[in-house]
Structures are given as C-alpha cells and as structure tokens.
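F.,

This is the one I mentioned.
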C-alpha cells in the first residue's frame, strides 16, 4: 500500500494493518503525538466493561461535577436537560466526541482508573491522560490524550476482533463508535454518509472510528471493512509551535489515504471501475 506524501512540517505517526496484523503501510509509527479526543476510546472501554460487569446501570443518570463543566465539542452542554443515562452519555462521546459527557463519565469512573486502561492492554506510549478542559494551563497535565500510530492502530484491530477485555466489551465500544459523525479526515475519502453509516453503506464498507481535533492536530483511528478486505488504521498529525496552520495539507493527505483504503477494502479503483 502506497501512502500519500505527508507534509514534513508536521509530525506524523501512521500505521495501517490487515486484520491478521500484517503491516500494510506505516510512517514513523512509534512517534508519540498529542491525540486530542482519541483517548476517549479508553474511557468507552472502561464504561463498557463496567456495564458488562453489572457495576453500573446503563439507565443511571450521569452526574456532571461543576468543576468539570465544559463546552465546545458535543451536544450535551446545549441540551435543555443534560441528565442523560450512562449509556446515552457514552453514545454522545462516540457520536460527537461530547466533552461534557466525557467529563461526566470520567468523574463516574475516576480518572486514575481510566488512565490504567491503556497500560492494562499492553500499551506503553498511548493513554487518556486528563479531563477535557476549557483552558489547559501549565499546572495541568500537558494533553488530554496521547499515543502512537502503532499502538492506536493495534487498539482498533483488537476492538474489531473482539479482543479488548472481552468480545462483549469490544462490540459495545464499536457500537458507540459506529455513530461517529466526523468524517472530515481519513473517512472523507470513503464517501460515506456522515450521519448514517452504522451498517454497510457505500460500496459495502463498514466503518468504526474515532477522531481528534485541536488547533494544531488532526487524528483519525479506525477499522474499515469491505467486500475485499478489512484494515485497521491510525493517522496522527501534530504541528504545535509551527508558524503555519497545516490543517489543509494534513487533511488533504488524510483524504488521499482514505481513498487508498477504500480501493483496498472494496477491491475497486477510485473511479469505481473494478481493479484489473
């Protein structure tokens, strides 16, 4: 698999693997990047584990600690009644990367417990690190989450295989991620319906993914299945401290990679003619 040209002004960490773990392409896969909201996947894993273990009632209403009230990404802070259930709070995290729902679930589980999810899965350089903050001052943890392309790609491969905690936990996490509405990055090249791709959609593709966005970062990690193949992927780009806003070249490269993944998993060329 041929990767697009990545703008060297950004720091990249990229890996694509087949369902059997064979590396199909990579670029600096062990470089640690800030991953914005992508670490919320580890929160969803912990919530799913507690639901499956019966430690939490899915209909229990989430409590929102005043000190962790945030806005920006999501819908919960806009709702007339934010007292949603634990299950629906997790769905909001998967669908719109909801910051307020994230902090409510983090407070419920405990930050220290969620920080241990990634190490327990064997990951050394990837984790959810902190609550979402309206402002990140020097006295706070340096980033909400961080990770490498290699480890995040492996996480998505294992989730698709039912190999994270248990098959039931993995399936639940992937069900929440099926609702992700952000198809602006790698998924842009798949041409899926952003609001309705839980089932097989364009060219028989099924996508489960999570994205992260800041003013200096774009990250997309996921699993894509099609009629011809299945792949897990992770693409992280950071340009913190750069004199340039690199979102345009970064998103162009991500979209191009998405087109390459679409051709691979569908067995069709980008112009929809069968590959010969």
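My design for it:
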């Amino acid at each position: 698999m041929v990767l697009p040209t990545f703008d060297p002004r950004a720091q990249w960490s990229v890996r694509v693997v087949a369902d059997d773990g064979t590396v199909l392409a990579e670029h600096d896969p062990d470089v640690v990047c800030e991953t914005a909201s992508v670490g919320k996947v580890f929160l969803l894993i912990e919530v799913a584990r507690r639901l499956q273990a019966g430690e939490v009632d899915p209909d229990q209403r989430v409590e929102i600690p005043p000190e962790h009230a945030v806005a920006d990404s999501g819908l919960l802070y806009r709702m007339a009644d934010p007292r949603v259930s634990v299950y629906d709070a997790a769905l909001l995290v998967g669908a719109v990367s909801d910051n307020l729902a994230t902090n409510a679930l983090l407070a419920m589980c405990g930050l220290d417990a969620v920080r241990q999810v990634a190490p327990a899965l064997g990951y050394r350089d990837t984790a959810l690190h902190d609550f979402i903050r309206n402002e990140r001052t020097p006295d706070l943890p340096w980033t909400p989450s961080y990770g490498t392309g290699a480890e995040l790609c492996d996480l998505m491969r294992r989730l698709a295989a039912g190999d994270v905690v248990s098959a039931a936990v993995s399936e639940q996490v992937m069900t929440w991620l099926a609702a992700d509405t952000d198809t602006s990055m790698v998924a842009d090249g798949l041409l899926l319906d952003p609001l309705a791709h839980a089932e097989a959609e364009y060219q028989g593709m099924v996508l489960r993914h999570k994205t992260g966005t800041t003013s200096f970062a774009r990250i997309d990690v996921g699993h894509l299945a099609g009629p011809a193949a299945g792949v897990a992927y992770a693409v992280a780009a950071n340009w913190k401290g750069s004199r340039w806003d690199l979102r345009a070249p970064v998103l162009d490269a991500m979209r191009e990679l998405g087109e390459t993944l679409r051709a691979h998993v569908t067995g069709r060329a980008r112009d929809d003619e069968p590959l010969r």
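The chain has a mean pLDDT of 95.

Talk soon.
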